[in-house]
Amino acid sequence: MRKVKEMQMKLGEVNIADISFDLRSRDEIPQLLMGLQHIWCTPELREKVFEILEKIVPVETSADTGRPGMELWKILVLGTIRLNCNWDYDKVQEIANQHTTLRQMLGHAFMDQSYQYPIQTIKDNVGLLTPEVLDEINQVVVKAGHSLVKKTAKQAYKEGVTVLWWKQTYIIRQISMCFWMPSAR
């Protein structure tokens, strides 16, 4: 029984769209989380990504009965962090249990800070993200990033405003960085 994400927010949970980041940070985690935030806040893109993610749920899994599995959103967030930061599962567990902004992105409220991710849960669920699935997601996200740049350029042209291309490039970089996989792995 897997859900994309529990839509009913818990007491003290921060909406993903309202999570704020240090824009001056040069660390990769805030950049990745901003890209994931864009995916979550864009309904068309989010639907396409979760259609792909629903393919990783085993066929024999019942949608109505049984224990709830890890939400697909959490699998996406943890898998993206793991691949882009080139971390092992132990490091992912440590960050998932201790990093405040990442815990907000995973949907934890201040009231459930005691929840700790077991290492085996992370291995079993994040391991479902195969390179083929990530490549499919990457194609969808990059295509959305390119349409974002085209739309912004058309709006700027109509308004007679100079386009600051580095901003659009930075947005595409944030989004596509979420699913970039180093070839060294």
Main attributes of the structure:
185 residues, mainly alpha
Tell me about the largest β-sheet. Answer: none
| Secondary-structure element order, N to C | HHHHHHHH
The overall strand count is 0
Helix fraction bin: 55-70%
Give a brief description.
The protein is mainly α and 185 residues long. The chain has helices at 28-41, 43-53, 72-85, 89-98, 100-105, 119-126, 131-159, 165-177. It is globular, with a radius of gyration of 17 Å.
Account of the protein in words:
This protein has one domain. The protein is 57% helix and 0% strand. The chain has helices at 28-41, 43-53, 72-85, 89-98, 100-105, 119-126, 131-159, 165-177. Helix 1 packs antiparallel against helix 3 (72-85), helix 1 (28-41) packs across helix 8 (165-177) and helix 7 packs antiparallel against helix 8 (165-177). The chain starts with 27 loop residues before the first helix and ends in an 8-residue tail after the last helix.
Chart the SSEs and their pairings.
Layout: H1 28-41, H2 43-53, H3 72-85, H4 89-98, H5 100-105, H6 119-126, H7 131-159, H8 165-177
Helix pairs in contact: 1-3, 1-8, 2-7, 7-8
